[in-house]
Amino acid sequence: MVGDNKVEISVTQQPDQQERGSQRTVDVAPAMAGHTVPDLTPTEAVFELKDVEVAYSGKPAVREITFDIFKERITALIGPSGCGKSTLIRCLNRMNDLIPGAVVSGTILYHGEDLYGAHVDPVQARKRIGMVFQKPNPFPKSIYDNIAFGPRVLGMKGDMDEIVERALRRGALWDEVKDRLKSNAFGMSGGQQQRLCIARCLAIEPDVILMDEPCSALDPISTGRIEDLMLELRENYSIVIVTHNMQQAARVSDMTAFFTVDVDSDDDDGGRIGRMVEYDVTEKIFTTPSDERTEAYVTGKVG
Ligand code: ADP
């Protein structure tokens, strides 16, 4: 880590990777074997957060959040309940705008542009920055219509059958549902519903996918499928995931931000506030974190 929360990336090049130019393999825990990431530089940031604070009805929930989120990388936000992970991820596609009393301050640049600038239409921003939630939330419609909904509303050009097939293929669902596209999405398993929600998000061609605890309602097999899908999607999308499952963060993410929740020294009522403790390459966070609070959390000494 360096002082301004830009990240110094230390990657170990494997002998079999040395011919791949900019592709390197991070030397990490066994769960991450074969996990390849390109070089990271600050210019590849898709989001740049500077001194971000979110308050609900005047009470700050997270404060002093400064870090970059890199393009085509999976970034995990971890930390104990209440430290502000969901609050923060909602800042990245302006979902907090929809929560009465929520106020976001500081700066969030998206591809170098102020995401909260006066000229930015939050609805447009959410088309580029999609979101998948904890509980799968398909529409009460057919599988086909779930996927086609966004492209139809947006008037996207092209053959709708092809758009639907492409999204379902990207969502690793096509082979399972191609013969029942007209069936109601509620007839799918929970894991399939969550992949449908991811495919629905992909259908409108975002460049970022935000995932807030996407597997917490799923069984281990469905969770594994979503994790595999995330690793495939990383080729073309930037993904931010909130997870309480540290093994999941270690398995899928390239970068990890660890947050904690402290008593707010500015609050006479002893209110609590979330802060970022450490942000670094996932391997480092889980093996040699810089801060003892991170170590205590990732080793399970504190919840
Ligand atoms: P995490 O995702 O890490 O569990 P949250 O972002 O859900 O943390 O919550 C951080 C803090 O913000 C908590 O104190 C929580 O009570 C508060 N908070 C979250 N959402 C709201 C909301 N819609 N209205 C008021 N307070 C909220």
How are the secondary structure elements laid out?
Layout: E1 23-25, E2 36-38, E3 45-56, E4 59-70, E5 74-78, H1 85-91, E6 102-110, E7 113-114, H2 122-128, E8 129-132, H3 143-154, H4 160-170, H5 174-177, H6 190-203, E9 208-212, H7 220-233, E10 238-242, H8 246-252, E11 255-263, E12 272-281, H9 282-287, H10 292-298
Parallel strand pairs: 5-10, 5-11, 8-9, 9-10
Antiparallel strand pairs: 1-2, 3-4, 3-6, 6-7, 11-12
Helix pairs in contact: 3-4, 3-6, 4-6, 6-7
In short:
This protein has helices at 85-91, 122-128, 143-154, 160-170, 174-177, 190-203, 220-233, 246-252, 282-287, 292-298; strands spanning 23-25, 36-38, 45-56, 59-70, 74-78, 102-110, 113-114, 129-132, 208-212, 238-242, 255-263, 272-281.
What would your notes on this structure say?
- This protein is α/β, with parallel strands linked by helices and 303 residues long.
- It has one domain (15-298): Rossmann fold, CATH 3.40.50.
- It is 29% helix and 26% strand.
- It has ten helices and twelve strands.
- The strands form three sheets. It has a six-stranded mixed beta sheet, with helices on both faces. A four-stranded antiparallel beta sheet has the order 4-3-6-7, covered by helices on one side. It has a two-stranded antiparallel sheet with strand order 1-2.
- Helix 3 runs parallel beside helix 6 (190-203), helix 4 crosses helix 6 (190-203) and helix 6 (190-203) packs parallel to helix 7 (220-233).
- Residues 1-34 have low confidence and may be disordered.
- The chain binds adenosine-5'-diphosphate.
